[in-house]
Design a protein that fits this description.
The protein has 11 helices and 10 strands. It folds into 2 domains: 177 residues, Butyryl-CoA Dehydrogenase, subunit A, domain 2 (Beta Barrel), CATH 2.40.110.10; 154 residues, Butyryl-CoA Dehydrogenase, subunit A, domain 3, CATH 1.20.140. 46% of the residues are buried. By secondary structure, it is α+β, with helices and mostly antiparallel strands. Helix 6 packs parallel to helix 8.
């Protein structure tokens, strides 16, 4: 980790330790916006990390954003930091203005001239964001759209983590447009964003499960001394290590090139599997107390279950990988994979 990443890592860890407490997270699940947390992130310039310095940002890369996203995942911070990072990155590349405050991401829209229509489902934090960002079209004709949310018809819902997910319906809403500087759909960049968040969440499951196994005593000794528990924790550790490694690799690859669909698909698929295994183990290690609302375990596991389903499930991305492998043919598979 270079000096810049160490600096932003130390900064966000300090901010989230102070402002993303259990009480703040549970209040957010009841609909209270964590104003102090968001303000602290903005004041430290973290929400615009990936925008260019000329546009008031930090000039950071996806590799730098990985530091922030995994920290957000570890702390289950209930704000759209991840969405705002991706939105400002896309807007900056398209030469569009960066609105103040939180932003969100939109999919499922169509463009007619300078107006968008359609239904964007499961939009994160749409009530707190003034604008959403969409990538419409593909290839050299792809456009980034800055979409005002005030004119959308909104249907409110919550995901498993009790984070707001809103269905936004647009009918010929005028937008600001700019050419997409980055190849790739919103689903692609959203999948990378969620993969990094989940990698951080898995780190918290491992830490908390090991701590609990060393503290909880049964038959006169910590349960972590029993071989069966040690085996489960070893599996949890390997799943976490694999998830962090593949998410980090995908983020670093995205810092270097737009040709990153393979790495992102692999990351989302692999981390989906890791979440299935790791959440099961962590709840088994914690036993009954892990299912209580008073304990903090569910604050992470519910977010992991929600994030894995967004911007394409692991099964969706596995199908994508399978189709690509078939199209390239059997003889090209090994060469293609090892060349990455």
């Amino acid at each position: 980790m270079n000096e810049f990443r160490t600096l932003i890592g130390d900064t966000i860890e300090r901010l989230l330790a102070d402002h993303a407490t259990k009480e703040v997270i549970q209040s957010a699940e009841e609909g209270v916006w964590p104003k102090a947390l968001w303000q602290a992130l903005e004041e430290n310039g973290l929400t615009r990390l990936m925008a260019s310095e000329a546009n008031g940002g930090g000039g950071g890369t996806w590799g730098d954003a990985f530091v922030l996203l995994t920290a957000q995942g570890r702390h289950a911070a209930p704000v759209p930091l991840a969405e705002t990072l991706v939105a400002t990155w896309l807007l900056d590349g398209a030469g569009l203005p960066l609105p103040q405050g939180p932003l969100t991401l939109l999919t499922g829209l169509t463009l007619n001239g300078d107006k968008v229509s359609g239904c964007a489902r499961n939009v994160p934090w749409a009530e707190e964001a003034s604008h959403g960002v969409a990538v419409i079209g593909d290839g050299p004709d792809a456009q980034v759209a800055l979409v005002p949310l005030a004119d959308a018809h909104k249907t409110h819902a919550l995901n498993t983590a009790r984070e707001p997910r809103v269905t936004c319906t647009f009918d010929a809403v005028k937008v600001a447009l700019g050419p997409a500087a980055q190849a790739g759909s919103m689903e692609l960049w959203g999948a990378l964003m969620r993969a990094c968040l989940m990698a951080g969440g898995l780190q918290t499951l491992l830490r908390d499960s090991v701590t609990y196994a060393n503290e909880r005593k049964q038959f006169g000794k910590p349960i972590g001394k029993f071989q069966a528990i040690q085996q489960q924790l070893a599996v949890l550790a390997t799943q976490t290590a694999a998830a962090v490694a593949i998410a980090n690799h995908a983020a670093d690859r995205a810092s270097e090139t737009d040709d990153v669909a393979f790495e992102i698909a692999v990351a989302k698929t692999r981390i989906d599997d890791a979440v299935n295994i790791a959440t099961s183990i962590s709840h088994q290690v914690h036993g009954a107390i892990g299912f209580t609302y008073e304990h903090t375990l569910h604050l992470t596991t519910r977010r992991l279950w929600s994030w894995r389903a967004e911007f394409g499930s692991g099964r969706d991305w596995a199908r994508h990988l399978g189709r690509e492998a078939i199209e390239r043919g059997a003889d090209a598979l090994w060469t293609y994979v090892t060349a990455r």
